[in-house]
Amino acid sequence: MAETDYWITRRAVLEGGAATCLLVASGLPVGAQDAVATMAAERVTTPISRIPMRFRINATEHALELDARTTLLDALRNNLGLTGSKKGCDHGQCGACTVLVNGRRINSCLSLAAQHEDDEITTIEGLADGEKLHPVQAAFIAHDGFQCGYCTPGQICSAVGMLDEVRAGWPSHASMDVTSGPAALTEAEIRERMSGNLCRCAAYPNIVAAIRDAAEEV
């Protein structure tokens, strides 16, 4: 049987507050006010059903019970403790939440967890091979491709997915020739392909250098 809990919505709180103000202004006896206030408070809570789901994340199986509206990002961070994926804008505009799903990079803040049952999900925590860093991780360290580090997990996951796209022959708006195989990873090409990942510290030159270096190893 699915677990049921309660979520206080903003609208319910506002309705409850408005009802309380009207009661105070009504001049009803205290006992009557308490009874009406109790009925208003009961409307504040909305039952939520949690659905059993199974996920394969970083080669490990996980069973969770989640609200159907839970995003993949919130499931990773709040339910599994995989906090490497960051919540930046929560609107799919900054790329800090980027993870790999079946090898493809996605913004996990825009994707419902329920969409990804049985998918192969890789977060920044799952890129390394034991103690051996992924070549992109190692290149970011070697080239100092970060400052505050908040966007770095998303940058790295996006770069891993982007390099796979290049090897598969995917063009970009910067590709001059889309007929002769994989595009050359020029600075313009890398910047275009990584344009969905923002770095507020502006470490872009080092990020580009790290990706060009790692491209020779992956």
Automatic annotation (TrEMBL):
Q: Which UniProt keywords apply?
A: 2Fe-2S, Iron, Iron-sulfur, Metal-binding, Oxidoreductase
CDD domains given in the database record: fer2
Q: Which PROSITE patterns match?
A: 2FE2S_FER_1 (PS00197), 2FE2S_FER_2 (PS51085), TAT (PS51318)
Q: Which residues form the 2Fe-2S ferredoxin-type domain?
A: 51-127
GO MF term list: 2 iron, 2 sulfur cluster binding; metal ion binding; oxidoreductase activity, acting on the aldehyde or oxo group of donors
Q: Which Pfam families match?
A: Fer2 (PF00111), Fer2_2 (PF01799)
The protein's matches in InterPro entries, at most eight in alphabetical order, are given as: 2Fe-2S-bd, 2Fe-2S-bd_dom_sf, 2Fe-2S_ferredoxin-like_sf, 2Fe-2S_ferredoxin-type, 2Fe2S_fd_BS, Aldehyde_Oxdr_Iron-Sulfur, Beta-grasp_dom_sf, TAT_signal
Q: Does the keyword Kinase apply?
A: no
Q: Which domain of life is it from?
A: Bacteria
This protein is called what?
A: Xanthine dehydrogenase YagT iron-sulfur-binding subunit
